[in-house]
Amino acid sequence: MNSITYWFYGLVAHQHLNNLMEKIHPILNSIQASYRGRIPTRADGKKRREKILKAVRDIIVEHGVQGVKHRAIAEMADVPLAATTYYFPDIHALLHDAFLDFCERNINQLQSLETAGRELFDSFASLSELADGDYQVIRERLTDMILRHISVQVKNKDDRMIERAFRNESLRNPELAQLVNDMELQQLNAIAQFFQALGSNDPDSDSRELIAIILYLEHSLLAGFVSESQALQTLQRTFTRLVS
């Protein structure tokens, strides 16, 4: 789950909110209410469940989703085999909850983006109308913030591998596909609100284009196909088209 999208949502909503977390909390509540596995209440149970979910992430990084089996998870997490089926009745439920847990963890990494977005929005909030020069400043600052965000994202290669593994698995797993699609629609709607606030004629298309470019740059930087300077040029051209 790409956390930049939730930052955009907070950027647009900041006129009415003092803190982005007021928008993140309902999303977190929705995620937590959607878990299919058993949710423990005792501290030792919570710790064991977390070890199982961490083992799922570690196995995905090493072997892909096809390596996620109850026995392999039990060995990786150093828990009894029965514990994996106690908390998660089957692999589908385990993957379902592992994906939600992954999304929840990514949402909690937004503090620096929230601060940057608030500062950018505040610098223009008092203006009744944006001039051409204002749009240029917005483009430059958005480019800088997103490039810094992407740089942080690519430093965590394991998370990007997990993110893509879940997306690929959703092509084989209809239930996971619906979950991934629901999350992606939230992302698209969040970014579309941002472009709508800037007066876009087609905010939905603009949001899809930006998400695609962010994912492309993350993958290309990780694979070594583009340099950071090339990524910067791509973002500059993108915002020249989208923000004017």
UniProtKB/TrEMBL annotation:
Domain of life: Bacteria
Keywords: DNA-binding
GO function terms (MF aspect): DNA-binding transcription factor activity; transcription cis-regulatory region binding
Record carries keyword DNA-binding: yes
Coiled coil: none
InterPro entries listed in its UniProt record: Homeodomain-like_sf, HTH-type_TetR-like_transc_reg, HTH_TetR
PROSITE patterns the record matches: HTH_TETR_2
Domain annotation HTH tetR-type: ranges: 46-106
DNA-binding region (UniProt annotation): 69-88
PANTHER family reported in the protein's UniProt record: HTH-TYPE TRANSCRIPTIONAL REGULATOR PKSA (PTHR30055:SF226), HTH-TYPE TRANSCRIPTIONAL REGULATOR RUTR (PTHR30055)
Record's protein name: TetR family transcriptional regulator
